[in-house]
Amino acid sequence: MPQDFQFEQSLYSRHEFYKELSIQTRLIKHKNVEMLLRKQSENKLFHISKVGESVEGRSLNLIKVGKGKTKIFLWSQMHGDEPTATAAIFDILNFLSANDDYNEFRENLFKNVTIYFLPMVNPDGAERFQRRNALEIDLNRDARKLESPESMILKNVFDSLKADFGFNLHDQSKYYSVGNSFMSAAISFLAPPIDEIKSIPSNRASAMKLIGELYLMANSFIPGHIAKYSDEYEPRAFGDNFQRSGTSIILIESGGWHNDPERQFIRKINFILLLSAFKLIAEKSFNKKDISIYESIPFNDERLSDFIFRNLTLCCKEKYYKTDLAIQSEDKFLIIIIRFRPNHLFRILGTCLYFQHITTLTSAVMNFDLVKNLLYLKCLPRNLII
Question: pTM for this structure?
Answer without folding.
Answer: 0.87
